[in-house]
Amino acid sequence: MGGSVDRGLMASDSGPDPRSPVIVGVGQWNNRVDQGEPPVEPADMMAEALRRAADDSGGGARVLTSADAVRVSQSLSRRYPNPARLVAERVGATPRDEAVTPIGGNEPQALVAQSCRDIAAGDAEVVLICGAEAWRTRTALPRDQRAQLGWTTQADSVPRARPTAPGFELNHPGEMARHVYEPPQVYALVEQALRHAAGRSIDDHLVHVSELWARFNAVAVANPHAWVREPLTAEQIRTPSPDNRWIWWPYTKVMNANNAVEQAAALILCSVERARALGIPRDRWVFPRAATQAHDTYVLSHRLDLCSAPALGVAGRGLFSLAGAGVDDVAHVDLYSCFPSAVQVAAAEIGLSLERPLTVTGGLSFAGGPWNNYVTHAIATLTEVLRRDPGSLGLVTGLGGYLTKHALGLYSTEPPVGGFRWADAQDEVEAAGLPRRALAEEGEGDATIESWVVEHGRDGEPRRALAACLLDDGRRAWASSEDPDTVAELRSGAEQIGRAVKIAPGGTLSL
C-alpha cells in the first residue's frame, strides 16, 4: 500500500523475534462513585489500573518499575501538565519518556502502534499505556468549587509531557458561527443521511438502530468491566422516557456515548526478549500484528457526503494487506461506538456485516465512554478475549472527531509471520483525490436539505432544528431555526431530505 510503512521483524523457527512487541498485561477499574465509593483523582486511578495490569501479567511490580516509557491518554477530568510523571511516581517507575496524547478517541490505538514501533526499533523495552476519567465527580461540582477536590497540582517547574502527536482544529469557524460543533448533533445528522441512503423510513430506521444497540447492550451485560450492565430491549432503547429522553432526535439518550463514568484502563507492552526476562508466562502474551491510521477531511463541511468515511476504508484495506489476512479471518471485533452512525459507517467501510458481533465491551453507551480513553478499555478487553480463544484474530478501531481520525489494529496470541507492521495510509488517501465540497460560510438563499436533526431540552420538548443544506452550486451551508412551527414541522416524522428551503442571512432556516 502507499504511505509510510514499517515492515516489521521476521519471526524465526524458534519463535518470534526477540524485538517483537507484545502486550503482556491489562488492567481496568470502575470506581463506582454512583454506588457510594469515594472519588479518586485520575492520576491515582491510572496507577491502580497499571497495578492491576502488572498483576495480570504475572510479573508483579517489577514490570512497572522497569518501564522506560509511560504514555497517557489525555484526561478531560484533570489536565495535568505531565500526567505521565505523576503515574510513574505512583508505580515506582523512572521512565526516559513521559508522553501524553492530544484529544481524540483514535489516540489509544495510535499510541499502541507507536509504542510497538519503538519496541521493534530498540528505542523502548517496556511501555506503560494508561488513561482515566473521573467525569461524574468533576461535573458534580460547580467550576468554582472543583479545587476542593484536592486533586494534585503540579508545579510550573515540572517539564510538560511530550505530546505524542500534533493536535488539529476540529471545527471550522463557519461551522462554529452557525452552532455546529456538538458530537451528538453531528452524528445524528450522519444517522439521518445513512437512513436516507439506505431507503428506510424514519420509523423503520429507528427500529434498525435500536436493534443494533440492543446487541451492544447484551455484550455489556456479560462484560464485568462495563459501567451499565442493565439489560435493555430494542424497544426500550428507542422509546423516549424520563430516563431516556431525546437528545438530538433521532437519538435517544441511550444512543449517545456515556461519559458520566469513573473508569481507568492500562496496557503493558514490552519486547518478547524482555517478557521472557521478566518471567511473564507465554499464555499472557498478545501480539499487535498490524496497525494503520488515516484521516478524512478535518473540516466536516468539506466532506462530499455525510454518511461515509473514505479514509477509514483505505486504512482498513491497508491493514488487512499488511497482515496478510482478510476481513473474514477476524473472529473478534470492537468498532468505535460513540454513536450508532459511527458503527454503521465503519462496518460499511471495512466490509463487516452489522449482523455479526461488532463489540467486545458493549460500546461507549453501555461499557462506558471515558472520553479519549475508551479504546484502551477495548484493547484490554480484546486481550482477555483473545487469551480465551488462542490463535484467533481481533480487530479494534479508534475514532477521533466527526468520523475524522482513524486508527486500526489487529491482534492475536500468535505472532505475525513478518513481524509487527504499521502504515500511515494518508498518502494513499490523498492520492485517491477524493472529491470534496466547499463550505458557504455565509450561505443564504435557495437550498435543499441534505440532513436534519432536532435538539430537545431536558424537559423533553423540541427546541431547535438544524439542517445541513446544499446550495444550487453544490456548496454546503448550515441553517437552523427555533421558530416553533418550523421546529414542529421538522420534528413531525415526515421526510425532509431533498426538501427545498430558504436560508435567510445569518443562517435562519425557512421552510
Structure description:
It is a single chain. The chain is of the alpha/beta class. The chain is built from 15 helices and 18 strands. The strands form three sheets. It has a six-stranded mixed sheet, with helices on both faces. The longest helix is centred in the middle third of the chain and has 20 residues.
Structural Rg: 23 Å
Beta fraction of the residues? Answer: 15-25%
From the helix content, strand content and strand pairing, which structural class follows? alpha/beta
Count of strand segments = 18
Strand sequence of the main sheet, in spatial order? Answer: 1-13-9-12-11-10
Helix content estimate = 25-40%
Largest sheet: 6 strands, mixed
Roughly how many Å apart are the termini? 48 Å
**Unreliable sequence segments:** 7-13
General shape: globular
Q: What is the number of helices?
A: 15
Mean pLDDT: 95
